[in-house]
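Exam revision sheet. Question 4 asks you to relate a sequence to its structure. Input first:
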Amino acid sequence: AVFDSVIHFRHPALVSIRDVKVTNEFVLGSNDLIMEYRYIHNAKGLKSLIADFSGARRDPKRMELNASESLLWTIACQLESLLRTFHQVDYALPGLHISKLIYVEEGQRVMFTGLGLIQAVLKDATCNPLDDIVRVGEVLFQLATRSLQLPVSREDAHQRIQGTKQISPAMENVITTCLFGNADVDALFKSLGHRISMEVGHQAGHVDNFINQCQKSQHGGRLLKLVMKLNMIVAFTEDHGDDTLRLFFQYVFKQVDGSHRPKLDWGHAYHSLNKLDIGSDELVQLVAEDSSTINIVSYQDIRNLLEDQFVNLQRAGMADPSNIPPMYADRGANVHAAHPQGRGHTPQSMNMMGGYYPQ
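Answer key, structure tokens:
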């Protein structure tokens, strides 16, 4: 019950808790706590950036020097937003430390991984929220100076930041305000100033890029569905019925040049499948390998034939064994002979694309 207040926390800069379980399976008679966190793909510790920055200083080709400060602004804005979310409901983040932060290069995301038992049990009695601002300043200072050693005074901080020759006065002001200015979240927000709006634009650009990548993957799945349907129908009806789909399969995937060498034209296959997907009215000439058969049909006709044949194939998969058409039954026997475990699959386990999965 003590976790009900924190398990529902959601923020882009927070690795949230998915579930909390109590178990006695590890030590007999002892109740242990298992906390399940959201998995973050391709994440690495934020501390590792210090080595990356140092490498950039030795080898400028590894990282643009002014990109390091740009990343500091991004991290500062994300941490400010995280603190504001927690402080508005009277929670502090005593575990906020560079060792509890991870970094995801895609989108330049920084995330806090320390949400856990201490926030659930101690809540606002944990520490003064102003201490969280100091911890943000410590993280920014460590990244700016490429060192885990913290400053002992404002003057020490100024000298060490100036020694990097890469940090602007504006960023230095943000860091020193956090470390020594007794600032709250509102003061940190004001010191970030116009960078907040700039980061919104940067994140919108990352979102656009991710959407574009997702759309490409979606198109890939759409074409994969067509290819799977076409392959299944050709495999079951190779020696039976209409030759149109078999000839179209050869037209797309079995092209040869004048010397009868395989012609691997990805563009031809891609455009042919897209025309099939939209049911284009464009006509295509399908010629058998021995030139004994020539069909001139539209992609729309091929698409209609593909869907009709696939529906028939699905019905055959759900039919009584005594009523399976020979064109499907013969092929099914070969499949079961090669894969005996296939006999355990039932018609109810056939999905919309014709694949079989165990119950």
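Marking note for examiners. Strands lie at 17-23, 32-37, 43-45, 101-104, 109-112, 283-287, 294-298.
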